[in-house]
Specification:
- By secondary structure, this protein is an alpha+beta fold.
- The chain has two domains: 228 residues, no CATH class; 54 residues, no CATH class.
- The protein is built from nine helices and five strands, in the order αααααβββαββααα.
- Helix 4 runs antiparallel to helix 5 and helix 8 packs antiparallel against helix 9.
- A hairpin with a 2-residue loop joins strand 2 and strand 3.
Length: 299
């Protein structure tokens, strides 16, 4: 069998094409994303002590740690795509190996969708805040904590209550969680909550697009619509992700900005694997066509 027709040619092509420097850069990105999992857990753990002071139940774990669970599931999913597109030879992606990878991938999708539900739940939490007039903030300082973001809640001290009171007397309060915030912070947090939901939805679309690309390339499905409009759809979705990252950067949410930037970069690397695969398959098909033509002419 000609080497170009070997089932493992695509993986060998990618391995030889990538330099050690490129591989090192790619795995550096994956490592940084793994570190972000810990950073998100640390941030949400502190926030959960305020929002769920009475204790966490199984029902609200996802709501409390939506970013941590979401990032972990995406990291596992990213590594699975890396295994399938670059590491494991095609002839080994059968039987138990194939179904194990697909099973883990499906499990990750469940958590990704559940985490999106967690972002939506946090947005719903914000709708439960009610406006209130507080003339003496220091008098209620011991009862409430001040919400800066969805994951940052500060103790109101005798010093900070005076500073907060100077920003105005309009506040929003959630009696159930004993949390309050001022008008500006409430507007900013609501905007960030919506960005989380939009960003999470866009990432679900990214993985759906990647699945369609993989199955189209394998010949499992065929879509004239996708062939015609996939570039436009991808540009639109990735533009939404880029705008979300820029918004986080502008509003000073560095961890969210840094995480979004790394994820966009990581999936660009996976897209590069896909481009190389498509180019190799196109070259293989062209070679086969020439061989068949030559054989027919010879006969």
């Amino acid at each position: 069998m000609n080497q170009i027709n070997s089932p493992s040619f695509r993986k060998k092509f990618i391995k030889h094409f990538h330099s050690w420097g490129f591989q090192g850069f790619k795995y550096l990105i994956y490592t940084l994303l793994a570190i972000n999992v810990y950073l998100f857990f640390q941030e949400e753990w502190l926030a959960s002590k305020v929002i769920f002071a009475a204790g966490l139940s199984l029902d609200n774990v996802v709501e409390a740690f939506s970013s941590t669970i979401d990032t972990t599931a995406w990291l596992i999913l990213l590594l699975l795509f890396e295994l399938e597109t670059c590491v494991i030879d095609d002839e080994k992606l059968v039987g138990a190996t194939k179904w194990t990878l697909h099973g883990i991938r499906a499990f990750c999708y469940i958590f990704i969708l559940y985490s999106l539900y967690g972002y939506i739940s946090k947005l719903g939490l914000l709708s439960q805040f009610t406006p209130i007039q507080i003339t003496d903030l220091c008098s209620v300082a011991k009862e409430f904590k001040f919400m800066e973001t969805l994951n940052v809640y500060n103790v109101i001290t005798s010093e900070t209550c005076r500073t907060l009171a100077t920003t105005g007397t309009d506040f929003f309060v959630h009696d159930g969680y004993k949390v309050l915030t001022d008008t500006n912070s409430y507007s900013n947090v609501k905007a960030l909550g919506w960005v989380d939901v939009i960003n999470g939805t866009a990432w679900v679309l990214v993985v759906l697009m990647l699945e369609v690309d993989v199955h189209t390339q394998l010949g499992n499905i065929s879509s004239k619509f996708w062939e015609k409009y996939n570039k436009f759809i991808k540009i639109t979705v990735y533009s939404v992700l880029l705008l979300a990252a820029v918004y986080w950067g502008v509003t000073g949410n560095f961890l969210e900005f840094w995480d979004a930037f790394l994820w966009i970069l990581a999936f660009v690397l996976i897209e590069m694997n896909m481009f190389e695969w498509q180019a190799e398959v196109a070259e293989r098909n062209a070679t086969n066509k020439v061989q068949v033509t030559n054989k027919n002419n010879a006969s």
